[in-house]
Design brief:
DNA-dependent ATPase and ATP-dependent 5'-3' DNA helicase. Has no activity on blunt DNA or DNA with 3'-overhangs, requires at least 10 bases of 5'-ssDNA for helicase activity. By secondary structure, the chain is of the alpha/beta class. It contains 27 helices and 24 strands. Helix 11 packs across helix 18. The chain binds adenosine-5'-triphosphate. The site of adenosine-5'-triphosphate has 15 residues, from helix 14.
């Protein structure tokens, strides 16, 4: 197979295109040597090639492809410097192209004049080589690191190309293991499974066969196990997977001729021999070490933070009365309880649906806290000065919290200055709040919550707010629900809907969804809530009609959102977007399917540009920059982001979006469409989340029996170990400190509005009930 790889050696004549973010290049090369018939002197080569520069000679390994528009091109899988550079001007160009700190064209020229054509090697190997140039020591270090990284990454790309493994996975492996990635690859590539996200068991298995690598069967089996367990966790959102199920899937993945049946003893043996740190494995459940650690960390921190205070009831009551006078509101019993609980405990939870007064309580808590601590909020230079920090997991949620409370709020990532947003073990800043308020807690996943708790230096008062009936977080776990179910943190459930104006009927309907009974309400039509029955082919035309009417009535497209559960099926997101796009913005000039004025959604986290997965924007204009078309998109009506042509795949049309993607956002008018009566993904919390995205107007469009059925199906369950860990730790603490009475009366929640239903009990994982719960729950869902 290796002989089938083609190669081209030649000097880079011109960089036609380069994407700074992922170092994707399109170049033209003067051919010096070629391993196949080509018949021309110049060839266009594409690929991820960090550090590549005009004028230098490289050997490219890859395959010949045919671009529909541009004809034959060579797709490089790897490349390496083929000849020692002999042209000083090429080395100057290379240094400039790397955008090294403090090195512009003039300095680069001076460096090459002094160090010669081997300047790059000199800089990497000799720390003193840059002495004599006006570059400070910090920058010198950065320059050496960047050039070393280029060289190392090239080596890793080359090694991975021999295994026919994608460049994207090679880059991930390099970021995790540096040059060591090459040794791991040559020794046991199965080691990467479950650790390097874009690698599958099949890929590695095929590669090992292709190059006939000598890897033991036990290493192969361990690789399969790790991959299966990680996939099951990521797809189902559960942090615990039934051992028996993992073993069954692993056997299936290994195939019939694996030569070994993977049973429990065999797994223990393999893990001991190969990769014992990866799993937490026992008779009943499997989880990865990461998730086991996150849950332990959370249980530990909660245990340490969780203490009651002796706060004076009289003072608190008079503060609440003062707030009521100021705001002209009469707080209801549970609102007052939630406030009191927030001041009498280090940790407290407030949960409730929309309009139940959560934001009002946050305002009350901030004002009372300021008053008790003699803070003048107007005079504080920054929120850190006041000791009060407000945070939420998404940009949208943080903005909405800050708009409603008139107090600054930041996303958790920004608050902690997380170094790598995808890595929950990534380094962060430490924070020292006195009062920490976390909103939209249901969106916080296990890893992120562990990261947040790990970053708190002090012992602040922490108040966690959210709506526990919504869908759980996109990432694995269901921290908010588990914290409530564990009963270790005082929790207040708000139930009264204070919104009697526009939107009031939407909230009442949402409450009916939670009770599972919407059958009698499906005929109801109000100013703010409308049910429109449509089947199959009728759905999209019905949506078009509503959109037309709403736009004619002045609803801005940013405030009009269609939500659907599926992408591909009839009446799915793709089809709706196509038709609504034609209807509201039928322009001919499009780039990658987008026209000026289009509503789009970002699909990836790109912290360098300050734009994150799920943010919705409007295409503003297209500008020419050095011959490239740059698309400008305005997010949140205030921050504009530029997209290179090949970055446009980070965007998709957003006239319709998935319900998962809409978590944490609200819109003035929401149109929810559902069809497919027998789809088990359509469950209560999915419908509830969709409906509660609407502020003023809600339309339900589709087969109305689908909505009735969805409301009737209990919410999806995730299996986690957190409830048990939280309760076990509390018990241990209680025993150790002989604290039983005190804790029972003060720490355990006095406020418990909702009686524990049989259903709720069943969600708490015990050794008795685990067999009754399907660990593949949620696996059937499209990954959000
Ligand atoms: N005790 C009360 N009496 C009268 N009105 C109230 C009371 N509490 C809150 N409200 C009003 O009810 C409305 C909803 O309250 P609030 O915004 O605090 O709820 P929320 O739970 O944060 O809702 P959402 O999540 O939808 O923003 C607001 O207009 C608020 O002023």
């Amino acid at each position: 197979m290796e002989e089938k790889q083609k190669s081209v050696t030649g000097k880079v004549k011109k960089i036609i295109f380069r994407n700074l973010k992922d170092q994707f290049f399109i170049i033209s090369v003067n051919i010096a040597e070629i391993s196949f018939d080509f018949g021309q002197e110049e060839i266009v080569i594409t690929g991820t090639m960090p550090g590549l520069a005009e004028g230098l000679t490289y050997k490219f390994i890859g395959s010949l492809t045919k671009h529909p528009k541009y004809g034959q091109q060579f797709k490089a899988q790897s490349y390496e410097i083929a000849a020692e550079p002999d042209d000083p001007s090429a080395v100057v160009k290379f240094l400039v192209s790397r955008e090294l700190p403090g090195i512009g064209e003039k300095t680069a020229q001076k460096i090459v004049d002094k160090l010669g054509v081997n300047a790059v090697d000199e800089i990497i190997n000799n720390p003193d080589s840059l002495n004599g140039f006006r570059i400070n020591p910090e920058r010198k270090k950065e320059i050496r690191e960047k050039l070393t990284e280029d060289v190392e990454l090239n080596k890793v790309l080359l090694a991975f190309s021999r295994f026919h493994i994608s460049q994207a996975a090679a880059i991930d492996a390099y970021n995790l293991y540096g040059l060591e990635a090459i040794n791991i690859l040559n020794d046991n590539p199965y080691y990467f499974l479950g650790r390097v996200p874009r690698l599958s068991f099949n890929q590695i298995d095929q590669s090992c066969k292709l190059i006939d690598l000598d890897v033991s069967e036990s290493e192969r089996i361990t690789g399969a196990l790790k991959w299966v367990a990680s996939e099951m966790i990521n797809r189902s959102g559960s942090t615990l997977i039934e051992t028996e199920r993992v073993l069954r899937n692993t056997n299936w993945v290994l195939g019939e001729n694996s030569g070994a049946t993977v049973n429990e003893e065999f797994v223990e043996k393999c893990l001991n021999e190969n990769d014992e740190d990866f799993f937490s494995f026992d008779k009943d459940f499997v989880t990865t070490q990461d998730y086991s650690n996150y849950e332990n960390e959370i249980a530990n921190s909660i245990n340490q933070l969780n203490h009651p205070f002796e706060e004076n009831d009289e003072i608190l009551n008079s503060e609440i009365t003062e707030f009521e006078k100021k705001t002209d509101l009469q707080l209801e019993h549970y609102q007052k309880k939630a406030i009191t609980s927030a001041f009498k405990n280090n940790l407290s939870i407030i949960t409730g649906g929309p309009g139940t007064g959560k934001t009002t309580i946050v305002r009350a808590i901030i004002e009372i806290f300021a008053d008790l601590h003699h803070l003048n909020l107007q005079e504080q230079e920054s929120e850190e000065d006041s000791g009060i920090l407000l945070t939420a997991p998404t940009g949208k949620a943080a903005k909405s919290l800050s708009d409603k409370t008139k107090f600054p709020a930041a996303t958790i990532h920004r608050l902690l200055k997380v170094r790598d947003v995808e890595d929950r073990n990534s380094e962060t800043d430490l924070i020292s709040p006195d009062l920490l308020i976390i909103d939209e807690m249901s969106l916080v996943d296990t890893g992120l919550f562990a990261q947040l708790l790990r970053s708190i230096k002090t012992k602040p008062t922490v108040i966690m707010l959210g709506d526990v009936d919504q869908l759980p977080s996109v990432g694995p776990g269901q921290v908010f629900k588990d914290l409530i179910d564990s009963d270790v943190i005082p929790t207040t459930t708000l139930q009264r809907n204070f919104r009697q104006d526009l939107g009031g009927n939407i909230i009442n309907f949402a409450n009916l969804i939670n009770s599972g009974e919407i059958y009698d309400s499906m005929e109801d039509n109000y100013d703010d809530l409308k049910m429109i029955s449509a089947k199959g082919e009728e759905i999209v035309p019905a949506l078009e009609k509503i959109v037309k009417a709403e736009i004619a009535a002045g609803t801005p497209i940013t405030e009009l959102q269609i939500l659907a559960p599926m992408y591909k099926n009839k009446g799915g997101i793709f089809e709706i977007n196509d038709s609504i796009h034609q209807l509201v913005n039928p322009q001919k000039f499009k780039i990658n399917g987008f026209a000026v004025g289009d509503k789009v959604i970002q699909l990836e986290n790109v912290p360098e540009k300050d734009v994150y997965n799920g943010e919705i924007g409007i295409v503003q204009r297209v500008e020419q920059l050095h011959g490239r078309r740059i698309t400008k998109v305005l997010f949140d009506q205030e921050h504009e982001i530029s997209y290179e042509p090949d970055e446009l795949n980070q965007l998709t049309l957003a006239y319709a979006i998935s319900i998962h993607k809409a978590q944490g956002s609200e819109f003035k008018t929401v149109i929810v469409t559902m069809s497919g009566r027998f789809d088990t993904m359509l469950r209560r919390n999915l419908l509830y989340t969709a409906v509660t995205r609407a502020r003023d107007h809600l339309y339900l469009v589709g087969d109305l029996t689908t909505f009735i059925r969805a409301a009737g199906l209990p919410s999806t369950i995730r299996l986690t170990g957190l409830v048990n860990k939280l309760q076990r730790r509390l018990d241990a603490k209680v025993e150790a400190e002989e604290f039983v009475k005190h804790v029972e009366t003060k720490v355990l929640p006095k406020v418990k509005e909702k009686p524990e239903t049989a259903e709720k009990k069943a969600y708490v994982l015990t050794t008795e009930n685990y067999q009754l719960i399907d660990p593949m729950i949620g696996m059937e869902q499209i990954k959000p």
